[in-house]
Amino acid sequence: MDFEVIKSYLPEMGTQLLGFLIVFFILKRFAFGPVLGIVDARRKKIEDEFSALEKQKKDLEALEKEYRLRLEKIEEAAREKIQEASKIGQTLAKDIQESARLDVKKFFERTQADIEQEITKGRVAMRNEIVEISSMIAEKILREKLDAREHEKMVEKFVKELEKIS
Q1: pLDDT band at 141 (very low <50, low <70, confident <90, very high)
Q2: How far apart are CA 56 and CA 59, in angstroms?
Q3: How far is it, in rounded angstroms, from Cα 81 to Cα 84?
Q4: How far apart are CA 80 and CA 8, in angstroms?
Q5: Is the CB of residue 94 less than 8 Å from the CB of residue 130?
Q6: Among positive and negative, which fits the CA dihedral 16, 17, 22, 25?
Q7: What is the pLDDT of residues 41-95, one digit of tens each?
């Protein structure tokens, strides 16, 4: 019985198989080619886009490397400029210190010369006063009659006057 059921369906299955084959060949001839062409074109387009993205990614990585190298060079140049400016600053500081040291030395020498000149003036003035005082004493001695006692009094008086002047 099962075989008879299958046998009754056989012409119908044959018709369906024949219809399927006809549709298959028609689709193969007219639809599969263009559809497969569209699918292939779409796949190629997607592959090309992925390739383009990969190329852009590589280009961006190369550009990033280039910018990093440039940035490193700029940073290195900046460090060199800072070091150069620091050296110039140190040199200027040394020059200023040396100039100040020379100015102080010249000022000290001038001050010493002024002091020596004032000391010389003071000695001359002192000598003049001593000469004047000596003249006054000599004059007083000559005016008065000198005996030993008078001479001692005058010396004591002279010493006291010298103490007052000093």
Answers
A1: low
A2: 5
A3: 5
A4: 99
A5: no
A6: positive
A7: 899 999 999 999 999 999 999 999 999 999 999 999 999 999 999 999 999 999 9
